[in-house]
Design a protein that fits this description.
155 residues, mainly alpha, three-stranded antiparallel β-sheet
């Protein structure tokens, strides 16, 4: 039987989901930029340079960048955003109390192009549906409980 989130964790799940969605989109975009950069570097021998001799933004032969090498910047930025993405995965995974293979699948979203976008939509839909069903269950239980009349204390 799969575990369900704790009652005390329910208020934090919506924030964790929002953090996951933002991290997922940023990491996905950075991964696509990294893939495009790798394609340019290894297929065509070009790197992206900012503010060099060829203009504000230009492709230059690999290893000849004299100004800011954006290719390296994209690689570093994706690495740091991936760490942030892993943290958001772990936070949502631990609050939802999913299985370990589910965490591994979420982690793959930052290394397989386009997977983070698909997972973001699927996970968000699933978590929202769970929260809605849990709220409906809680509402039906509380409406079925007998309402007791308050007792007034006398002096």
């Amino acid at each position: 039987m799969p575990l369900e989130p704790r009652e005390s964790d329910l208020p934090r799940i919506a924030g964790a989901l929002k953090f996951y969605k933002i991290a997922s989109i940023i990491t996905g975009v950075m991964l696509l930029a990294l893939c495009a950069e790798m394609l340019m570097k290894y297929a065509f021998g070009l790197e992206l340079e900012l503010g060099g001799a060829y203009g504000f933004l230009a492709f230059v032969p690999s290893g000849s960048a004299q100004a800011i090498n954006l290719s390296t910047g994209i690689l570093i930025a994706h690495g740091w955003f991936y760490v942030l993405y892993l943290f958001s995965n772990f936070r949502l995974w631990s609050l939802m109390r999913w299985s370990f293979p589910r965490l591994l699948l979420l982690a793959l979203g930052g290394v397989i192009p386009f997977l983070s976008f698909f997972l973001e939509v699927r996970v968000a839909r699933e978590v929202r549906a769970y929260l809605a069903s849990r709220a409906a269950r809680t509402a039906s239980v509380s409406s079925a409980a007998p309402i007791s009349n308050p007792v007034e204390a006398s002096h």
